[in-house]
Design brief:
This protein is 17% helix and 24% strand. The protein is α/β, with parallel strands linked by helices.
Length: 295
């Protein structure tokens, strides 16, 4: 049986699994499905259509499943889909998708085993994989993709359509405006690649041989602290493949990621290549703008 505080409200059209806890002043709306063992603290708002897997934990002030903040949204029944064993700390907000986005199919997706800390915002049509840590006050614009085991430090601002590669580390207060390569650490206003994310890779038990090869590849690809400059990206990719480094599965993934960015990236963002909205999709908002009269 679910444990629902008498001061909470659960809509009759919501579906609750076994052993769900709903705290005081929380609201679970119609079209919400909660998996077994989910725990809602006080003042949590879950709106549908939305599906949450088992054992998710929601702290005070979370609002998940609200309509997107997007001028092209037409009010349709887009969705939020969340996996299992996630922790959403205080004040996390996550919005549903938009009808027009063909990449997401109108769905914002959050994987499993993720930690989203205080004040994180995930906008419409975004896609977060598994085992991700997102620190306080990170704001993700729409259509963002974060691959598995990435770490995003506090105060990071992410442009719409960017992708953060797997095992990447984004330093605090970084401005992310183009795709972040996998396996590396980036930092600062210019989103500079500083090093391979060695400590993170070791924590996830990536073999030392792969870490060594990733470092060799990074010396060719990215700016180094020494006076020696890296090769141009295409030349570096060719050199990595010629040296056999790309036989390693992790180096191969890094090479494939960067090739996609070069071939399909718009302003350095691969997902932007596939965007399908236009000014006509936002026309209704501007048509309702009052005409300005001469003074």
């Amino acid at each position: 049986m679910a444990q629902i505080h008498p001061m909470a409200f659960v809509d009759p059209q919501a579906e609750l699994g076994r052993d769900v806890e709903v705290g005081a002043f929380s609201y679970v709306g119609p079209g919400v499905r909660l998996g077994d063992g989910c725990r809602l603290g006080p003042h949590v708002t879950l709106l549908g259509p939305a599906v949450f897997g088992p054992r998710n934990v929601f702290y005070s002030g979370c609002v998940l499943g609200a309509a997107p903040q997007d001028l092209k949204y037409k009010g349709g029944p887009t969705r939020l889909e969340v996996g299992a064993d996630n922790v959403f700390r205080e004040g996390v907000t996550i919005h549903r998708g938009t009808e027009i986005d063909r990449q997401s199919g109108g769905v914002t997706r959050i994987g499993s085993h993720n930690l989203l800390m205080v004040g994180v915002h995930v906008a419409h049509d975004s896609d977060l994989a598994d085992h991700i840590i997102v620190a306080n006050a990170v704001h993700m614009a729409g259509h963002v993709r974060v691959e598995e085991a990435a770490v995003i430090s506090g105060g990071v601002l992410m442009h719409h359509f960017v992708t953060v590669g797997r095992y990447a580390y984004v330093g605090g207060a970084t401005r992310v405006v183009h795709d972040v390569p996998p396996y590396v650490k980036v930092l600062g206003y210019d989103q500079e690649v500083r090093a391979v994310n060695t400590e993170g890779l070791r924590r996830w038990r990536v073999p030392e041989e792969s870490i060594l090869r990733l470092k060799q590849a990074a010396r060719l690809l990215f700016v180094r602290r020494s006076a020696r400059a890296p090769l141009r990206t295409l030349d570096a990719l060719r050199a990595i493949e010629a040296d056999g480094l790309a036989r390693d599965e992790h180096v191969q993934y890094l090479v494939q990621f960067l090739r996609r960015k070069l071939e399909f990236g718009v302003y350095g963002r691969v997902r932007e290549h596939f965007r399908c909205d236009s000014d006509a999709d936002r026309a209704a908002f501007y048509q309702n703008t009052p005409e300005k009269t001469a003074p």
